[in-house]
Amino acid sequence: MSSLPVRPSLAARLRRMLERLSDGLVERDALARQVFLAALAGEHSLLIGPPGTAKSALARRLHRAFAEGGYFERLLTRFSVPEELFGPLSISALEQDRYERHTAGFLPEAHIAFIDEVFKANSAILNALLTLLNEREFDNGAGRMRCPLVSVIGATNAVPDDAVADAFFDRFLMRIVVSPVSAAGFGRLLQAAPDDQGAPFPEALLATERQALAQAAQAVTLPSPVMDCLRDLRSALAQMEIVVSDRRWVKMVALLKTAAATEGRSAVSCWDVSLLPVCIATEAEEQAQVAAWLASRLGVREAISPPRLTRIVEAFEAQLGAEQKANDLDYDADGRLRFSAGELAHEIGDAKGGAEALRMTYQRRRRYGAAHIDARTAQVSALLERIERYRREVLAQIDDLTQYLDQSLWMAPDFAVAAHTHLRDTVAAIDALRERAVSAREGFVALPRLPEGAGSVPEPVAHEAWPD
Predict the structure, then answer these.
(1) How far is Cα of residue 389 from the mean position of the Cα atoms in its chain?
(2) Strand 174-177 vs strand 45-48: parallel, antiparallel, or unpaired?
C-alpha cells in the first residue's frame, strides 16, 4: 500500500491514544475508536443508551486527546434555556440596542463538547445547534461568528420522532448504541480503577497536526473497487429500506479518507467500508444487519460469488446427467420401435413376444464421438481454470485483510473475525465446487464412445455468463 507524506509517528501515537481512551472502560474499545475517528474527521457522535455507561467519561477523555482548545459539557432538560449553552446576554450590548451573548466558556468557543440528553432541548436550542454543528457558525446578535468546534458528543436514552429531531439527528455522523457491560465483563467492571479525569494525555494532537491530517485526507483517493462496493451497499440498503441522505454519503466517504490518512495510506481500502454501519443505521439490529452484509461481501466479488458459481457447475452436471441417460431409440407414429430386419439381432437375441415385446424392452445408450467429448471436457477445463483464478483472488483477499489488520487503527475485531471466517468459508466452497467440476469432466470423459468416427461438436453447455 502506498503512503502519504504524513508524520511517520502519527499512527503509532494514535494507537497509544486509543489505548488511553479506553483504558479502564470495560467493553468500550470499539466505542473509543468510533468517537475518536469521528473527531479526527471533524464529525459528531451520538451515543444512544441508558445512563451510567461511560458516555460522559469517554467525552472528557476525548477532550484531553487534543492539546489545544476548550471543553464544554451540559446536561439538558426540557427547562433548559439558550443561555446554558450559548452564554448569557451582554448587558452592555443591550444598552446599545444589540442582542449579543458572552460566549467565552460556552459551546460557541469550545473545541470538544458533551451534551447529555441532547433531545430534551427545546426547538429554539435545537435550531441554533443545527447551524453550529454543521457549519461551525453561531449567530450572535447581528453577526455570525466562526466557531472552533472539532466534535460534539451527544447522548440520549432514545431518539424522538419529529421533524426537528430528525434534522438534528442527521447532524451526528456516528450513531452508536451503547449497552451496559455484559455478564462476561461484569467482574472487570467491579475491579476497574477510578477514572483519573484530570490526567493529561501524552502526545496529544496539536491544532497544526489536525490541519495536516485534514489536508492529507483530502488527497486520499477512492479507487474503483471501493466505488463499486459503495454502489452495491447503496443498493442493498434500498432493499433493507434504510434511507441514507446524499449529504451523509459524502460525509461517510470523508470519514473513510480520514481513516486511510491516519494510517499513512494514499487510497481508501474496501476494508475501510466496514466502519460505516454506525454511520448508516440507527438501531442496533439494523447496524448488525449492515455489518453482516459487509462481512459477506467485502473481499468477494458478488458477480462470481459461490452461489453463482454453483449454478454454473450445476449446469454442467445437469448436461452430463442428460447425456448419460440419453438413448438413440427411434419410434414410429404408433409408438413402435423402428428398425430393419437383423439390425439389432445381436442385442435382442431370442426375445419373446415379437415386435411388441421389443418395443417395450429394447434400450441402447447413446454413444458419442471424440469431437463431442473433447468439446465438453475443454469447456469444463476452462471452467476449472476460472475457478482456480477465483480461488487465488479470494486467497489474495485473505492476505490483504491480514495486512490491513496489522496496521488498522479502526476496524472492529468482531468484524475482522467475521470477514476472515467468510473468506475462509468461501475458499472451502470454491474447493467443493472445483471437485464437482472435476467429477463432471471425468463423467464426460467416461461417456460411451462411438466405435468409429469423430462425431460432431455439440453446442456449448448453456450457463450464466462468467464475468472477467
Answers:
(1) 24
(2) parallel
Q: What is the pLDDT of residues 94-140, one digit of tens each?
A: 878 788 889 899 999 999 999 999 988 888 888 889 889 999 999 88
DSSP codes, 217-240: HHH-B--HHHHHHHHHHHHHHHHT
User: Model's pTM, two decimal places?
Assistant: 0.82
Residues 389-420 as b/e (b if ≥16 CB within 10 A, e otherwise) read ebbeebeebbebbeebeeebbbbbeebbebbb
Instruction: Determine the Cα–Cα distance for residues 458 and 379; give it in Å rounded to an integer.
Output: 11
Segment 254-261 mean pLDDT: 97
pLDDT tops 60 at residue 425:
yes
CATH homologous superfamily of 10-208 = P-loop containing nucleotide triphosphate hydrolases (3.40.50.300)
Burial annotation 289-323 (CB, 10 A radius, 16+ → b, else e)? bbbebbbbbbbbbeebebebbeebbebbbebbeeb
For helices 246-262 and 10-22, the axis angle rounded to 10 degrees is 110
Report CA Rg, the chain.
34
d(CA 22, CA 62): 10
Between the CA of residue 97 and those of 63, 91, 94, 284, 286, what are the distances in Å? 37, 10, 5, 50, 52
Cα–Cα distance list, 10 to 416, 451, 457, 465 (Å): 23, 76, 64, 47
Using 50, 70 and 90 to split pLDDT, how confident is the model at 8?
A: very low
Using alpha carbons, list the distances in angstroms from residue 362 to 118, 323, 332, 347: 85, 18, 14, 9
The cell numbers describing 268, all together, are 481508501
Q: CB neighbours of 320 closer than 8 A, spacing ≥ 6?
A: 376, 440, 443, 444
284 alpha-carbon distance from chain centroid: 15
Compute the distance between CA of residue 36 and CA of residue 2 in angstroms, rounded to an integer.
24
Residue ranges of domains in the chain: 10-208, 220-282, 299-326+367-468, 328-364
Q: 340-371 b/e with 16+ CB inside 10 Å = b? A: eeeeeeeeeeeeeeeeeebbeeeeeeeebbee
pLDDT tens sequence across 264-301: 999 999 999 999 999 999 888 999 999 999 998 887 76
- Grid cell of 440 as nine digits: 463432471
Provide φ and ψ at 337, rounded to 5°: -65, 130
DSSP tag of 457: P
Q: Beta 151-156 vs 112-116: how paired, if at all?
A: parallel
